[in-house]
Design a protein that fits this description.
The chain is of the alpha+beta class. The protein has helices at 2-19, 150-153, 176-181, 186-200, 208-221, 225-237, 242-256, 258-274, and strands spanning 35-36, 42-43, 46-53, 60-67, 72-73, 76-78, 82-95, 101-104, 108-111, 117-121, 127-134, 142-144. The chain has 2 domains: 35-154, Jelly Rolls; 174-274, Up-down Bundle (AhpD-like), CATH 1.20.1290. The strands form 3 sheets. Strands 1, 3, 4, 7, 8, 9, 10 and 11 form an 8-stranded antiparallel beta sheet that branches. The protein binds manganese (II) ion.
Length: 275
């Protein structure tokens, strides 16, 4: 029944658009992106061109944007989401709380409605994308927020972070768990790889960053410096800043005990120096 109502509703909404005859189509001729994007919403040099706007009742509009190396948007939200089609170069994109991800020519990025995010070039290469946005019935399509800091921009792991003592590695070599205990406790090593990292850590209900915050908190509270060392490195790779980790340890001093916090600080000092 619900399904019938939903189908009827879709047809009712679609009907006017179908009935409306179009007598021509529009070709927007390709032009190099030459307009400078506004400095109050972008860091570095970003050029925009080839703007287009569909005719109502369609809501889609867009443009091509080229980001010089290091250039990026400020944090922002699109009311109805955004689709990015990368047409050249190498860039970066991040959802608030998620990891910084590298994007390449040919990639398509789907940004959900209301999701706080940024996009831009990589530090060493430019990136060009076509950006597609839809205009809401009322209100703006985009809400601009604060600048993406240098720390946030470079949080992407530059080289593989040291694998946590209990984690699986991403290549074909035996995982850390297999190396540590595979000879004597193969089932525990398999459970660590398949269940802990393959299912729990991989599940999308919490971001990798949030899972790092939870795990690091627990390891500090339990005073486990060995595992804390590898999980602090993983937390950095998952986008948690040094400043945030120090604040977290300070906060936990009141809940987990001052000695645990002091131990955690000395482990953090080592990890920050190595990374
Ligand atoms: Mn965007």
């Amino acid at each position: 029944m619900t399904r019938i109502i939903a189908t009827a509703l879709v047809l009712a909404l679609a009907a006017p658009a179908i009935a409306r005859a179009q007598d021509s189509l529009t070709v927007v001729r390709g032009t190099p992106p030459t307009d400078l994007a506004p400095a109050e919403h972008f860091t570095g040099t970003v050029r925009v061109g080839n703007r287009f706007q569909a005719e109502a009742p369609a809501r889609i509009y867009g443009a091509t944007a080229t980001f010089e190396p290091g250039a990026r948007t400020y944090w922002h939200v699109h009311t109805l989401g955004q689709t990015l089609i990368v047409t050249a170069g190498t860039g970066r994109v991040q959802h608030w709380g998620g990891p910084v991800q590298e994007i390449h020519s040919g990639d398509v990025v789907l940004i959900p409605p209301g999701a706080k995010h940024w996009h831009g070039a990589s530090p060493d290469a430019p990136m060009t994308h076509v950006a597609l946005v839809e205009n809401p019935e009322d209100g703006p399509s985009t809400e601009w927020m604060e600048e993406v800091t240098g720390d946030q921009y470079t949080a992407r792991r530059q080289r593989p972070a040291p694998a946590p003592a209990d984690s699986a590695s991403e290549d074909d070599r035996p995982s850390r768990a297999q190396q540590l205990m595979g000879d004597i406790a193969p089932r525990l090593a398999d459970l660590t790889d398949d269940v802990l990292y393959g299912q729990v850590w991989a599940s999308p209900e919490l971001s990798q960053r949030d899972r790092s915050l939870v795990t690091v908190s627990a390891l500090i509270a339990m005073n486990r410096p060995d595992q804390l060392r590898s999980h602090l490195a993983r937390a950095r790779a998952n986008g948690v800043t040094q400043q945030e980790l120090i604040e977290m340890i300070t906060h936990l001093a009141f809940y987990a005990g001052w000695p645990n916090a002091v131990t955690a600080i000395s482990v953090a000092r080592e990890v920050f120096q190595e990374n």
